[in-house]
Write a structure and sequence with these properties.
With 500 residues, the protein is an all-alpha fold. The chain has 17 helices and 4 strands. A two-stranded antiparallel sheet has the order 1-2. The chain has a two-stranded antiparallel ribbon with strand order 3-4. Helix 2 crosses helix 8, helix 6 crosses helix 7 and helix 6 crosses helix 16. The longest helix has 35 residues. The two termini are 20 Å apart.
Amino acid sequence: MKNLWARKSIIDLQNEANDHGLAKTLGARALVLLGIGAIIGAGLFSITGSAAANNAGPAVSISFIIAAVACAFAGLCYAEFASMIPVAGSAYTYSYATMGEFIAWIIGWDLVLEYAVGAATVAISWSRYLAKFVEYYNIHLPPQLTLSPWETMTLADGSVVSGLLNLPAVFIVVAMSLLLIRGTKESAMVNGVIVALKVVVVLIFIALGWGYINTDNYTPFIPENTGAFGHFGWSGIVRAAGVIFFAYIGFDAVSTAAQEAKNPKRDMPIGILVSLVICTVLYILFAHVMTGVANYTEYQGADGIAPVAVAIEHMGSLNAAGKFVLAYPWLNKAIILAILAGYSSVIMVMLMGQSRVFFSMSKDGLLPKVFSDVHPKFGTPSKSNLLFMVFVSLFAAFVPATVVGEMTSIGTLLAFVLVCAGIIVLRKTQPDLPRAFKTPLVPLIPILGIVSCLAMMYSLSGETWLRLIIWLAIGVLIYFKYGAKHSKLKKANQEKNSSN
């Protein structure tokens, strides 16, 4: 039981960072693009409209700021850890150094929810948007090959068909996995192109939509509360912040690439914080335009890309015959293309993050050696990538995306809580360790991060909490059956005690 709370030495971790076999290919710019690639997904296009219609009205822009501040608290803590401990394990490694092996295992297992399960969920949505996109060109994918066996679709003639497997979802997982195996540098280059594409589309929407803003749509900017908590008023702004928080998930994946950064002490804080700032600015401007070109009430009931479609339908003018003509009929296609690109980069970064977390856990003996085997040519954990390719592909092919999104979110929030707590612990236990980046106003910033993340966790459903508990219980069982028996730290401590 004593070994449950055994901690890894910061000095040993720093030495480990220089002896791992992973190729160091990422600079500050690549890390920033990695963060943007993970953060900006289709959530921006779908969540903004529903949060405005149901919770905050035009003040959803304020909600984005509140959510960004909560993420910034955690981001500052991540930045300090990443600059001190440039190791691939992210929150798992940070917890190992501050709160011991058992907590580290819990958070490592918890991160499977964010990365592997999250990648499968995103792949399922990618498949749906691909089907929508090719329909513009009169190509209709068979529904049997775009749905899981548990899903059905009603066709135009009224007939109902059941799915067999989600083939496009499998395709994108395999494609991104093979790219990751080929090399981190190559993956970063492709991610850079994808990020450029989706950011350009977002900027085009903002620039074109700005000229069609009707300032009357901002009145009232904060709609009066209906009497129910979270339904407009300031409580609605806070509730909307909890909803759109999930559009920010992903910046922490930058820290999983620490061992592949050329200068992690300088570049990791830049990658984490700059990507968060850039995405926040884009989110606020995007929300401002959406609620300006159309009244927030018009987004009620819209889902998928429909909220953006509603906004685009208001970008036009009356012709000579008095008929309303869209100014940019091609913009919907561009939005779907940006969503496909955005999801692709999210899947890639999540798969990379998961393999790097398991790489660190395997190096510590808590998981089988196969997860830390490095390809002799490509310098990547190729066997781990292949295993996750199979696991995530099977999940994406046969499991419907229903409640997995909330499971991903609660797993992420738990990781944030432990990282913030780790900064407080480390400042108390090892205050003199050199830090290339220091979280300001400790313990205030970490405490605010913990409180804000716990508040968002509290807002999630009881079913989500139950699934998290069951998932963690399975992880605890695996730890005691395998991890605790093969822990390298435990073996090292036993050898040290026997020699004394």
